[in-house]
Structure formats: C-alpha cells, structure tokens
Amino acid sequence: MKNLLLIIAVCFSCQISTAQNLYFPPTTGNTWDTISPLQLGWCPAKIDTLIQFLENENTKAFLVLQDGKIVIEHYYDNFNQNNLWYWASAGKSLTAFLTGLAQEQNYLSITDTTSDYLGLGWTSCSPAEEEKITILNQLTMTTGLDDTWGGNSDCIDDTCLFYEADAGTRWAYHNAPYTLVEQVVANAVGTTYNQWTNNTIEAQTGMSGLWIKLGYNNIYWSTPRDMARFGLLMLNNGVWDTDTVMHDQAYLNDMITTSQNLNSSYGFLWWLN
Questions:
Q1: Predicted TM-score (pTM) of this structure
Q2: For FRET with 170, which of 20, 87, 224, 261 sits at 20 to 30 Å CA-CA?
Q3: How many domains does the chain have?
Q4: Does residue 90 sit in the same domain as residue 50?
C-alpha cells in the first residue's frame, strides 16, 4: 500500500502518454488541471467500489492521473491535499534518482567504493571485504552485509554491519546500506540531503517534501500531490515539462531495469514487479 499512490499516478492511464500530450501542473500554487472519469468513458460504479475498498484498507489519499491531469482525487479520515504522509520504502526510488543526479554532475561514480565517502571502518568487515562494497552494491542490495545480525536491519552503526558474503554475490533487502546511500550523496555533494533534494528535484517540479530522521531511518514525507509529481516526472523519463531534470538516460534506464542476476525484480532501489 505504501507505493500505491505513486504506482497509480504513473500507470493508471488508458494509453501510453508522450511528452507532446502530457500536462504538467505549475510548480507553484495549487492549480492542477482535471478531467472527469465520464470524459474518459470510465465506469462510475466501479470507481465507487474502488473508493470504498481503499477506505476499508485505511488509505489516506488516492490520486489517478491521465496524461498528467487529475481524474480522481480522494482523501480519507480527515486527511487532505495539504497533509504530509511518509513514503516509507518508496523513498528508495527517490534516493536512486538523487544518486543518479549526483553522478551526472560528477560528484561521484556509482562504481566508487563506499569507503571513499563514508571513510574506512564504516562496517565491521575486514578492510579488504569493506573495500569491495561500492555505491552500486548499495543501490542493488548486493553489499554482502549480514541483514539479520542483531535482528535490526535498519541499524547503520559499524557494530551492526558484518560480512556475510563478498559484495555482488548475494542479494538481500537490507535497509541499512540503503540509508547510508544518503550519507554518501550528502558527503559527495557537500550539502545536506534535504538541500540536495530541493536543489535538484523539488525546485524543478514543485515538490515540497522533507527527509526526517526516525531512529536509524531517514524517511521522506510529502503531500500526496508531491508524490504524484514525482510519478509524472518518472513517466516522462526525468523531464518536467520542458526542463530536463535528469539528462543521463542510460542511468535512468538502468535504474528501472534488472540491475543484477540475483534478483531480476530489482533495479536501483526500485522494485520492477
């Protein structure tokens, strides 16, 4: 359910949209063009059934875009379009995009060893084992670190990060190495992670979210419409209206296709199934 809003915003279309017919809302203010389900020939009764199902599943917000325009926008439980909600693991996809922008601007290369940006000893591995871990391994969940040690896969302390296998030889959904990508990027670009997000994505698209530390995790919070903006940006291959946010189409394509031979359903911090 955490990814539902983004998935719907990107994929719930009757046909594949192109840059020529996509609508992009202004980057300031609340204006966002709409189109009615009836204009699209959608079935009102089935929409009502879906809306009720989502309420039963404790949904906070539900948006459907067609060619960038809002077709359905529904809020539940006193939630509204200005309220913030956390992206949970959907924030991983945003981090993958932000990492690509850091590489595009020559602050880092994803083939760099992670120790170049976090320093030696960021894990409890031997120096040789740690040196094998790259940013790419973090993006693809192939660091080889033990994701079960201590029963807390979120812990980013060096005392929680132990060797399990050589980097690139084992896939495991492990939050800690992902969270550390944010420190890698911040150290590489020389700003806070929130500043980097604002400078490279939010200002260009009108998003206005915020990364907030919760325990070991760094969670992105935004309005539902902000999440829809990111979905629209991805739908248009990293271009917002006439503003190209990500020029590196090779990275963008790698991000959303199978990234290794251990789990074909995973790209760069991006589920493909």
A1: 0.92
A2: 87
A3: 2
A4: no
Residue length of the chain: 273
Note whether residue 43 is domain-resident.
Answer: yes
Residues 62 and 89 in one domain: no
Closest Cα partner for 33 from 228, 238, 236?
Answer: 228
**In this predicted model, what pLDDT tens digit does every residue of 120-137 receive, in sequence order?**
999 999 999 999 999 999
What whole-number distance in Å separates Cα of residue 181 and Cα of residue 69? 33
- Same domain? For 91 and 51 the reply is no
Question: Is 207 in the same domain as 131?
Answer: yes
Query: Binning pLDDT at 50, 70 and 90, where does residue 20 land?
Result: low
Are residues 245 and 130 both part of a single domain? Answer: yes
List, as one string, the DSSP characters of the chain: -TTHHHHHHHH--SS---TTT-----SSSS---B--TGGGT--HHHHHHHHHHHHHTT-SEEEEEETTEEEEEEE-TT--TT--EE-GGGHHHHHHHHHHHHHHTTS--TTSBTHHHH-TTSSSS-HHHHHT-BHHHHHHT---B-TTGGG-TT--SGGG--B-S-TTS-----HHHHHHHHHHHHHHHTS-HHHHHIIIIIHHHT---EEEEETTEEEEEE-HHHHHHHHHHHHTTTEETTEES---HHHHHHHTS--SSS-TTB-SS-B--
User: Do 163 and 68 share a domain, yes or no?
Assistant: no
Full domain range(s) for residue 49: 37-75
pLDDT in tens, 215-259: 999 999 999 999 999 999 999 999 999 999 999 999 999 999 999
